[in-house]
């Protein structure tokens, strides 16, 4: 049996992704703390704007995600020139989408904020933050596309090292420009916008340099406006657009759930926000393995090694389940003390503690959903994941959360229970779909004539 390229082993792919995600989570928390020193209004504007940016990010991630899967598949099947063309097209189109978004946010910040019902007293701050951070979204699009493509070539260490350097710089620049340290001006929230865009630009430059040397034949700048093949790009869209819908489902279901929590009251909203921060540390390792196995399965699937691809999903699932369950149990034991780092309000603490036991149920469901959902994405079964996400997130995560949490006054516990039910519903559906091996069987059937031709010289 042909051995797997060492850079496509599960551990080699997963640990750099974990370090990158861990650092982003930790530094994101520090970032929020620094912005909170400006004012509560500044935190509100940043939180509001980031939800908007996350929703718009799905537009260019549709292309980047689809291209990433195809790059790994093409490298697995040793069609590296196709992989190279797909990668170039992904960067070009993602950047073009990012430029359109940037122009829209830079010129229409206030109308967008009003359309989303941001309060009048926050509009002056939102004008500046949405205009300038949103105006740099094309850099975010380039960074996201470059990082996705580079990871799917098997190089997860490069984006990790870039992420470490840029995120550390971001913290230093934020501190300096918010508070006027190191001889720099004290710009408050405006300093955050400068820091964001400087770091995005540097990240883009570093990843672009790395991208130029990611394939056997060096990529030239002129190829970004000369390379386009309709058939290959059609394949990117075929895989990518359901991924985009899936990401949009998640973003908008979270927005809806947070709006329900706001109806319940500020304490419920705060408790869920704090728990969300703690939970992110629970599933990071699991998320890293889920993303790593997507890259690995796409590579194996492209190479026609379907049996290995099938088993890889379960291997990642079992490892991930062990990790997230252990982390959730540690959080259950230490959660009350950790919640105390955020707040001393007894009502919020009581609500948060009541969610710790439910988190023991939530995390395995998330892992089941992430691992097998990503496995299906890796072989191109993205429409199935889109369909189950639309149904489950729409009916269970959003619909039932409102019905049981608000209409029947079940409150935060009921909403959390609906979130658990949504994760398990999608995870179980993905389990049966993966066990059915539909796409793997199709690949095996397609391989038989090719083997016969090679054997008999037909």
Automatic annotation (TrEMBL):
This entry's Gene Ontology molecular function terms read:
antiporter activity; xenobiotic transmembrane transporter activity
Q: Which domain of life is it from?
A: Bacteria
Membrane topology label: Multi-pass membrane protein
Print the keywords alphabetically.
Cell membrane, Membrane, Transmembrane, Transmembrane helix, Transport
Query: Which coarse location class applies to the principal site listed for this UniProt protein?
Result: membrane
Q: Which InterPro entries match?
A: MATE_fam, MdtK-like, YsiQ
- Please list every transmembrane segment annotated in the UniProt record, as residue ranges: 12-35, 55-75, 87-109, 129-150, 162-182, 194-215, 236-264, 284-304, 316-335, 347-363, 384-404, 410-432
Q: Which PANTHER family does the protein's record reference?
A: MULTIDRUG AND TOXIN EFFLUX PROTEIN MATE FAMILY (PTHR42925), NA+ DRIVEN MULTIDRUG EFFLUX PUMP (PTHR42925:SF2)
Specify the protein name.
MATE family efflux transporter
Q: Which organism is it from?
A: Cohnella zeiphila
